Amino acid sequence: xxxxxxxxxxxxxxxxxxxxxxxxxxxxxxxxxxxxxxxxxxxxxxxxxxxxxxxxxxxxxxxxxxxxxxxxxxxxxxxxxxxxxxxxxxxxxxxxxxxxxxxxxxxxxxxxxxxxxxxxxxxxxxxxxxxxxxxxxxxxxxxxxxxxxxxxxxxxxxxxxxxxxxxxxxxxxxxxxxxxxxxxxxxxxxxxx
Length: 193
Ligand SMILES: C[S@@+](CC[C@H](N)C(=O)[O-])C[C@H]1O[C@@H](n2cnc3c(N)ncnc32)[C@H](O)[C@@H]1O
Known about the structure:
By secondary structure, the protein is of the alpha/beta class. The strands form 2 sheets. Strands 6-7-5-4-1-9-8-10 form an 8-stranded mixed beta sheet. It has a two-stranded antiparallel sheet with strand order 2-3. It is globular and about 40 Å long. β6 (about 95-100) and β7 form a beta hairpin. Helices cover about 30% and strands about 25% of the residues. It has helices at about 30-40, 80-90, 110-120, 155-160, 175-190, and strands at about 1-10, 40, 45, 50-55, 65, 95-100, 105, 125-135, 145-150, 165-170. S-adenosylmethionine binds near residues 127, 153, 175 and 180.
């Protein structure tokens, strides 16, 4: 299964943000755009993939949100901000809570998540402009693509990831986070992965 992990050092870790001011919620707008490019199709959803958010903003980092669209999940492109708010509000310390069908929240660090995904047999890729051309990369069916927000991933995290992940590039330009998700989805669709 393909999976994406969106990392943000600043995205809010509580639901008490204003959905009309998403840029003030640690650039929650970028998280939402990336999720939409990951999960939505013109006339449906990608139900055979998972999208993860790792948020390190205030007031209670880190938070891990995992979403896999299920038939009984009510979801609209216009309302992803409120979906994330609802999930954050339902966080309960000490456990992974399924807030809505396929939507989970827990306290988990970025590297704990990546290690778990690796242990489950996934190959990890880091989306990085300086990586190898994605068109030439060998990509298995069980693959995880990590991307950063407007600030990218902190240098320390990138350094540690280099031992765990293959760096892949979608081109020589610096794209929006959401644009890279669309390109990866398209590449995997072409390959039938
Ligand atoms: C807007 S970019 C981050 C810009 C940030 N100033 C930096 O230097 O990393 C958001 C994310 O998109 C991904 N990205 C952007 N352009 C890319 C490219 N050409 N190839 C692969 N990933 C890219 C990276 O994961 C990056 O963290």
